[in-house]
Amino acid sequence: MLKASPNLTFVMWRLGARRIVVTANPENLEHMLKTNFPNYPKGKPFTDILGDFLGRGILSADGDLWHMQRKLASHEFSARSLREFVVNVLEREVSERLLPILSSACADRRVVDMQDLLRRFAFDTVCKISFGTDPGLLDPSLPESALAGAFEVASAISAKRGAAPVYVVWKAKRALGVGSERQLRAAVKLIHAYIMEVIRRRKATLENGIQHKDLLSRLITGGHEDEVIRDMVISFVMAGRDTTSAALTWFLWLVSSHPEVEAELSMRLYPPVVWDSKHAVSDDVLPDGTRIRGGDRVTYFPYGMGGWRGSGGRTASSSITGGGCRVRESPFKFPVFQAGPRICLGKEMAFLKMKYIAAAVLREFSLRRVEGERQKPTLVPMLTAHMAGGLQMVVERRK
Ligand code: HEM
Q1: Which InterPro entries match (predicted)?
Q2: What are phi and psi of 142, to 5 degrees?
């Protein structure tokens, strides 16, 4: 529908549901994400869906609450010591866990689901960076992590809420405390209890003068309330968990499809966050003339913007990697990390992680898709771009 529209924008009407404006027009993106930013918060419908899980964390906050957290988190994310800490965490997780797993798969000629492996890797590292504990999802000698299971359940049920055509069903289930809503409540309770316990113990060790470099310890040292710290680290885990692993899964799939253009690949074709929405506060007109009414959902679509050839005969973001050289493109044409005042805070960290992992893995191993699985994978646009059925690969040592 976007392709068929001359201004890369269409309006969706459904009986009894709010109007949804879907756009892939860079001028409209700049307008909603920057020029008229205050008119396009995430909005109450978003908080309704994710608020039980994300609480007052940065991913679901708006207005003053968001602004306060953004300032706080930008300060922490820009610290050079955090970058050093991230590299240390990556080094250990790659050399002690990821590479040995690939080595043994290579020796046993065992097929590996790289999507699953990368998701486990991402969860381990994001937990170490966010609150300094190790769920050990890549360590078979450790028991299954209840925390990882709870994050999985809470994000899947919250995503299902968002995809439901009418909200009365899940709202009624929540009011009655039954079914999936009961599972969600139990998962959130477990996550809260786990993180509050980490906060309690960390405070004690910090008082004894022991230094920690993770985000949670930095927030405790900053003197913030326990609940705020808890919700902030939940947002960090959610923001950093499936995004980097989705990017790397699609990247490995592309590399194995086109080894000859390996050097030119980017995230343009498979952005990990496929679409993203805001809710208009009041009436407005987008630069292409689309009329917005207060309450409308306005959705932009990075997946659509990366993949097709626009009217000019080039992809919306083709100049990112032209002939192997990198050209800085407007973030409104390449909104993989969003753009404007709310642009992803972990962008640098994500690139650091992905380059580190891609280089460490591809320097030693060559990954080939399982023979016979030549068809294009199916993208499941959950909260992040999931690959249906995983990415089954054969690991060979690079000659
Ligand atoms: C390839 C990997 C990643 C991609 C594609 C990505 C993409 C995005 C996008 C699209 C948003 C905007 C969401 C919205 O406002 O609706 C966002 C926000 C955010 N991201 Fe990332 N992200 C990635 C990795 C990370 C990592 C590793 C972290 C670190 C923990 C992180 C931290 C954040 C935070 C804290 C926000 C909220 C910013 C705010 O609301 O002001 N991200 N990211």
Answers
A1: Cyt_P450, Cyt_P450_E_grp-I, Cyt_P450_sf
A2: -95, 150
Inter-residue contact 64 to 72 (CB < 8 Å): no
Structural tokens at position 377: 């994978």
Higher pLDDT, 222 or 59: 59
CA of residue 241 to ligand 1 center, whole Å: 10
- What is the 192 CA–ligand 1 centroid distance (Å)? 21
pLDDT at 351: 87
Backbone angles phi and psi of 57, in degrees to 5: -70, 165
Can you read off the two tokens belonging to residue 19?
């109007």
Structural domain spans, the chain: 9-397
- Residues near 376 by beta carbon (within 8 Å), at least 6 away in sequence: none
- Kindly state if the Cβ of 250 falls inside 6 Å of ligand 1: no
Q: Is the predicted pLDDT of residue 34 greater than 90, yes or no?
A: yes
Q: Which residues contact 179 (CB under 8 A, 6 or more apart)?
A: 173
Pairing of strands 297-300, 20-23: parallel
Ligand 1 neighbour 278 (Cβ under 6 A): no
Closest CA to 398 of 106, 90, 98, 100: 106
Contacts of 116 (CB under 8 A, 6+ apart): 390
9-397: CATH architecture: Orthogonal Bundle (1.10)
Is the pLDDT at 315 greater than 60? The verdict is no
pLDDT tens readout for residues 138-164:
987 777 899 999 999 999 999 888 878
Which residues make Cβ contacts (< 8 Å) with residue 202, sequence separation at least 6? 131, 132, 212, 216, 217, 220
Sequence-ordered alpha helix ranges (H) in 279-346: 302-307
